[in-house]
């Protein structure tokens, strides 16, 4: 028996390369990895006596640095103007010698006598951030810095991170914390998603109902919006930022060299605004309310003069607030239902000689772009703005894969890559959904984020120049709290920073994994929530063998690993792992290892569970049937575990040649048990797996082989079993708990010496 997951695969990759990675950390623990790092002998001792000499003592980067030394290290260093004297025990912050550096670049030179950071503007700030990363987490009255020479500059000019505050509202304090993380890892554009169907979050003086009505929804959906039986919490949710609060956040970000790109959605995702001002819709007499469910609504702005005047008024106030060159106008997910039904829209299409409603959307976007351009700004839109013709000066944010970005670059338009397929949708899960918090779905582990390259190889060198950069997005339909937002953000933010900053030739995931523990320890010490993986080397496995080798490493500096061998939950009162060992498994028996990581701040990892069975191959059973297909029993009930199906009342039964569950969908919640006999042609190890939502398990000769029996998103885990040649009893249990959005139930089988293939119910007999 063998169980594996995406986390297992990732950990195995780490373990396979850990020896190689431990040879040397050429990047000195710095994230993102710099262009050039050279370690030199010696160390610089930072103390109260150290002088800080700056070209300008009023420089905001200098102030940031001195404030941090005071607050985090209790150092009150003298700050004075840089005279170029080069005295010992000095940190020099200067723009001298940087004329040949690319934009935002810096040089850091640490010797036993001096620290010199050379950079202009953001470059000086990023040099300071690198120096901060070299400061040890543990220190006394003095702080020792390793001597090093760094030359560094970013791969991309646009390095973005997005936050949706509409689906769930987040405080100014949290937004600042978010910005601090961005600054620490050299990201420079904060995409603030401020309006959507479920809430309007920015004060607009001319239209007060946008916040008095549009910022508050009456209740919020519980669970998935795809559930057939939707339920609501009955609790009002809302909030908005005053213009004074927004000015405060803009200054806070600017002090950290971060530009804020505000997003005002149009013409779709506009239900909150329409609820406040129904005249913005194509059917003003219809009752509207701020959205309470997720997904896409057919209620969109009507392209009327009233709407255009409204949006121009809104954008005027937005532009007056935000100094950003870019204003994001959305443009995504715009159903055309209302426009197709609207007599006004159909006449407008004919009058403007447009082809269809897609052409009307292009007209809408281009008209708004002209207004934004008239204010000296430029628009960014999601890749749907390509439909019907791209606005002349628009920048495209490619989210539905890379196709939109490729098309835009080929039209000589600037592009920011942010595809969900590249691991850049941080609202997706980070492992098998059965072990992760509720999310919108997907599985985007940190390794997938790290390996993404924003420059598509299909573009010519000239076209590649239009790729301005990269961005990750954090949508918050299923992220209700600040702690959960941090969990989904961290540590994937670290991988994003390296994608955005580090030269492609310098990226090395093995070295990145080696640098992670110190940065996770920094998060741990500074009160952040983050996803903590099990110990490096701890795998979730149900396998066959006569021993289990245990060689573990904490994923966070200073963390401890606890384990059990008795099947009980590990914790502080169980065994402390402190050296590698091997567990022997006698013939006919099994051994079970569970581990947990606990950090100094009390964060706990998921519990890993490794079971090794030393059991003889299953002998064949007697079976003489010749009818292809499996028997099925449909049972009624609400299930959370596939084992509950056996005792449930049977409401239907029969024989089928397919594992398709569509015939059973008439039941809101149900379970089905498929049984039959499978012919094994040769002795050997066979691997089975399932792909489904909700729960499923597979048994061979009544022995569990696959155990995917709890609610989860669509994914498949597998298990292995030793089988002798002949017939074997096959049982598949599946349940739909009312959350399944697909009819997918697939079974896979790997025969010794052959690739994995789908197992048809027709190849089983009853």
From TrEMBL:
Domain PA14: 625-763
Keywords noted in UniProt: Glycosidase, Hydrolase, Signal
Coiled coil (residue ranges): none
SMART domains membership: PA14 (SM00758)
Protein name: beta-N-acetylhexosaminidase
Stated family: Belongs to the glycosyl hydrolase 20 family.
Signal peptide range: 1-21
Reactions performed catalytically: Hydrolysis of terminal non-reducing N-acetyl-D-hexosamine residues in N-acetyl-beta-D-hexosaminides
CDD domains according to UniProt: GH20_chitobiase-like
Top-level EC class: hydrolase
Organism lineage string: Bacteria, Pseudomonadati, Bacteroidota, Sphingobacteriia, Sphingobacteriales
EC number: 3.2.1.52
TM region(s), chain numbering: none
């Amino acid at each position: 028996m063998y169980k594996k997951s995406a986390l297992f695969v990732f950990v195995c990759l780490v373990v396979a390369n850990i020896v190689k990675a431990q040879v040397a950390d050429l990047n000195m623990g710095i994230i993102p990895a710099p262009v050039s790092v050279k370690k030199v002998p010696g160390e610089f001792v930072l103390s109260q006596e150290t002088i800080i000499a700056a070209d300008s003592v009023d420089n905001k980067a200098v102030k940031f640095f001195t404030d941090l030394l005071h607050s985090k290290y209790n150092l009150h260093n003298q700050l004075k103007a840089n005279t170029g004297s080069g005295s010992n025990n000095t940190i020099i912050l200067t723009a001298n010698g940087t004329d040949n550096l690319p934009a935002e670049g810096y040089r850091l030179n640490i010797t036993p006598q001096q620290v010199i950071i050379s950079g202009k503007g953001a470059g000086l700030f990023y040099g300071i951030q690198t120096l901060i990363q070299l400061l040890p987490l543990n220190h006394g009255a003095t702080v020792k810095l390793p001597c090093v020479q760094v030359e560094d500059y970013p791969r991309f000019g646009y390095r973005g991170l997005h936050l949706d505050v509409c689906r769930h509202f987040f405080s100014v304090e949290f937004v600042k914390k978010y910005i601090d993380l961005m600054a620490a890892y050299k990201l420079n554009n904060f995409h603030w998603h401020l309006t959507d169907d479920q809430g309007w979050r920015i004060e607009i003086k001319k239209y007060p109902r946008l916040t008095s009505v549009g910022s508050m929804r009456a209740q919020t959906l519980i669970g998935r919006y795809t559930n057939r039986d939707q339920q609501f919490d009955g609790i009002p949710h809302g909030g908005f930022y005053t213009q004074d609060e927004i000015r405060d956040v803009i200054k806070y970000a600017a002090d950290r060299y971060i530009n804020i790109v505000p997003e005002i959605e149009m013409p779709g995702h506009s239900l909150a605004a329409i609820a406040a001002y129904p005249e913005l819709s194509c059917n003003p007499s219809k009752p509207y309310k701020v959205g309470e469910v997720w997904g896409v609504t057919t209620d969109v702005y009507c392209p009327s003069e009233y709407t255009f005047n409204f949006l121009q008024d809104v954008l005027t106030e937005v532009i007056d607030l935000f100094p950003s060159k870019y204003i994001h106008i959305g443009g995504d997910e715009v159903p055309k239902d209302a426009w197709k039904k609207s007599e006004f829209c159909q006449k407008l299409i004919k009058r403007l000689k447009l082809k269809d409603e897609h052409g009307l959307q292009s007209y809408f976007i281009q008209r708004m772009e002209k207004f934004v351009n008239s204010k000296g700004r430029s628009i960014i839109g999601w890749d749907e703005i390509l439909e019907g013709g791209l606005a002349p000066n628009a920048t495209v944010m490619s989210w539905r894969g890379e196709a939109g970005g490729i098309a835009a670059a080929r039209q000589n338009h600037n592009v920011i890559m942010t595809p969900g397929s590249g691991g850049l949708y941080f609202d997706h899960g980070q492992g098998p959904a059965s072990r992760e918090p509720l999310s919108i779905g997907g599985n985007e582990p940190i390794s997938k984020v790290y390996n993404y390259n924003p420059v598509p190889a299909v573009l010519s060198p000239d076209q590649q120049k239009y790729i301005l950069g990269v961005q990750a997005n954090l949508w918050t339909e299923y992220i209700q709290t600040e702690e959960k937002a941090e969990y989904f953000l961290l540590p994937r933010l670290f991988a994003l920073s390296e994608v955005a900053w580090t030269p492609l030739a310098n990226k090395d995931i093995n070295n990145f994994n080696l640098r992670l523990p110190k940065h996770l320890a920094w998060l741990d010490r500074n009160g952040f929530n983050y996803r903590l993986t099990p110990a490096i080397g701890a795998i979730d496995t149900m396998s066959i063998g006569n021993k289990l080798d245990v060689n573990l490493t904490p994923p966070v500096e200073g963390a401890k690993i606890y384990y059990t061998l008795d099947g009980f939950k590990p914790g502080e009162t169980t065994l402390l792992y402190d050296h590698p060992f091997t567990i022997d498994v006698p013939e006919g028996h099994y051994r079970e290892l569970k581990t947990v990581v606990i950090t100094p701040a009390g964060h706990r990892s998921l519990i890993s569970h490794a079971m090794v069975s030393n059991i003889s191959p299953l002998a064949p059973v007697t079976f003489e049937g010749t009818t292809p297909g499996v028997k099925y029993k449909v049972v009624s009930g609400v299930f959370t575990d596939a084992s509950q199906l056996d005792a449930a009342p049977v409401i239907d039964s029969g024989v089928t040649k397919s594992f398709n569950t569509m015939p059973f969908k008439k039941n809101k919640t149900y379970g089905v048990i498929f049984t039959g006999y499978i012919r094994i042609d040769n002795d050997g190890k066979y691997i089975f797996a399932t792909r489904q939502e909700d729960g499923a398990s597979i048994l061979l000769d009544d022995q569990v082989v696959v155990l995917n029996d709890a609610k989860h998103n669509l994914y498949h885990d597998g298990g292995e079993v030793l089988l002798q040649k002949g017939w074997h009893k096959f049982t598949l249990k599946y349940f739909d708990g009312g959350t399944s959005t697909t009819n997918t139930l697939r079974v896979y089988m790997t025969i010794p010496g052959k690739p994995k293939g789908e197992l048809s119910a027709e190849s089983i007999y009853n």
